[in-house]
Amino acid sequence: MALTTEERERFRKLCASLRRDMVDVTGWSGGAHIGGSLSMVEMLVLLYWKYMKIDPANPKWEDRDRFVLSKGHGGLGHAVVLGRRGFFPFDELKAFNKTGSNLGMHLDSKKAVGCEVSTGSMGHGLSEALGMALGARVLKKSFRVFCVIGDGESNEGSIWEAAMAAAHHKVSNLVALLDRNHFMIDGNTEDVMSLDPVADKWRAFNWQVWEVDGHDLDALSDAIEAAIAWDKGPAIVICNTVKGKGVDFMENKAAWHYGGLSADLVAKAKASIGEE
Amino acid sequence: MAGVESTLTWTCYDATKLSAREIYGIVLSDLGGVRQDIVGLTADLAKSTQIGAFGDKFPDRFFNFGIAEQNMFGVAAGMAKVGLVPFVSTFSVFASMRACEFLRTDVCYQNLNVKVIATHGGTSFGSAGTTHHALEDISIVRAFANLTVIVPADGYETAAAVKKCLDIDGPVYIRIGRGFEPPVYKAEPEDFTIGKAVEMRPGTDITVIACGPTVYHAVEAAEILERDDHLSVRVLNLHTIKPIDEEAILKAVMDTRRILTVEDHNIVGGMGSAVADVIAASGKGCVFEKLGIPDVFTPHGYPEDLQHMFGIDADGIVDKVRAMMGREFEADESWEDEI
Asked: Minimum mean pLDDT among A102-111, A121-130, B180-189: which range?
């Protein structure tokens, strides 16, 4: 079902608000993976506020849908979402990256409430998501598993091992979303290690593929809904995104993969995002 | 002639008759009937590692991931996350090295209830050569926090370890051989306790600490030394490398003052190194030596030949014990002649 006018407006404002939060946390923490966190905001908003069956008051609910951030360096963005969704007090983010904090660069599933899997090393999350999805089958449970993977991360062979296995085992309760922001630390993905034609690659691995503008809430919502409904095997939504989305001086700049922000730059970044 | 032909004609599936692995497959199949949460995972080695016996019985709880060990260990972590108890079976070289970081980061870091059955440990896959000899796995995996590391002496002890590992709510690595090793026990040891070394023979002159296939050799060597040299040789089966049985090791140091470790593994970082850590930290002096693969890559050959070549069989242990009996502590306090 398409987004209602009310949903579209609410999610649009929420995306801007979360982006401003991510900028704040980057400022507080002294440095964070801001670029790749900003690129996946719409995906996380639609999953955490619309499509996933979750209960922040009962984070270990057995039948909940699971989310795995395979591109674990998006921990900043994920932590902001978990905090705002009510899994833990948002104020905990003031200690992000600090010694003794429950929250840091790559989230620890034993400490960050709501975080299902400790990721950070590239190319692990999709396999763990697949294990959860197959686990649901063994346990005869109906929960789904959603997994956001990165495009730089897709250089890892293990991503394709998992892709092959998910299709072979005809896993239909697994939905992957590729944050196709075209940048990795050393530059454009097509210069460092070309990934295109990425949609064809996933099709060749027998996945059902949708390709959308990852910042277009309506298109993204339709694709996620179709991917959830697909029951013949694994599904992936390739989300074409902009690294650093919303902050003019960060957009499409590889350097903002990771960085720190002075108070002045925090203000400039938030002004760029707008919607205050 | 028909008889000769039947012994000369065989396939890779037949090479796995009788063995620790076979017993392991049977035990796991039995456990699977009792525990509905056990799932079996393999990477194109269902037959070679005998986990296929579980798969035959419980096809809905058995998954083959093809020759892709990294993914398999990640999947196992995910399955454990939702409450299942995955038994993952592949060769030791692949479990410890190909899938190393997936075992470390996905399974051990998150302290997940995954049981690894690492077969073809040490030089047991002799003719396969260096690529399939697991000479480093104990050294690698015992550095992973949260992981229990067990090296059973034979098929019977493997059966006991597979059952007992279910009592641990966390990751366990069980390293077994290819299955042609002679049995040390006559039946499954009922008092098998993870973390507790087994005294296979009492002794007061020297203690030989062994694990895996070298337990058999150590017992044989102790019998020879008693008969020919009138030596009283204690043999400890240190089946659990981590957590290590400090008490049994230090008691052996106190009682015998001579310790020899023997393992089918590189002498760097393996069981012998773990024992050396305990002794060094205790401050107690003793004559100490390690037998193992002397930091070289092993050639292909029959396992018994390789074990003889590198002195980790009964002959090698006998020779080393005799040499060690001639060594004494130095009472002097001078450092100059030590270097």
From this structure: B180-189
Instruction: Tell me the chain B residues in contact with residue A130 when contact means C-beta distances shorter than 8 Å.
Output: 71, 74-75, 78
A91 φ/ψ angles, rounded to the nearest 5 degrees: -60, -25
Which residues in chain B (82-121) have CB-CB distances under 8 A to chain A?
Answer: 82-84, 86, 101-102, 105-106, 109-111
pLDDT of residue A93: 98
> Percent of chain B having pLDDT more than 70?
90
If you write DSSP's letter for every residue of B179-221 in order, what string do you get? S-SPPS-SS--TT--TT--EEEE--SSEEEEE-TTHHHHHHHH
pTM metric for this prediction: 0.95
The C-alpha of B88 sits at a distance from chain A's nearest C-alpha, in angstroms, of: 12
The predicted-structure confidence for B50-94, as pLDDT tens digits, reads as follows: 888 899 999 999 999 999 999 999 999 999 999 999 999 999 999
Q: Is A123 left (phi over 0), alpha (psi -120 to 50) or beta?
A: left
Amino acid B16: pLDDT:
45
Contacts of B191 (CB under 8 A, 6+ apart): none
- Tell me: the pLDDT tens digits for B264-298? 999 999 999 999 999 999 999 899 999 999 999 99
Q: What is the ipTM of this complex?
A: 0.96
- Spell out which chain A residues touch chain B, with contact meaning CB-CB distance below 8 angstroms: 62, 66, 109-110, 116-118, 120-121, 123-136, 138-139, 141, 157-158, 161-162, 164-165, 168-169
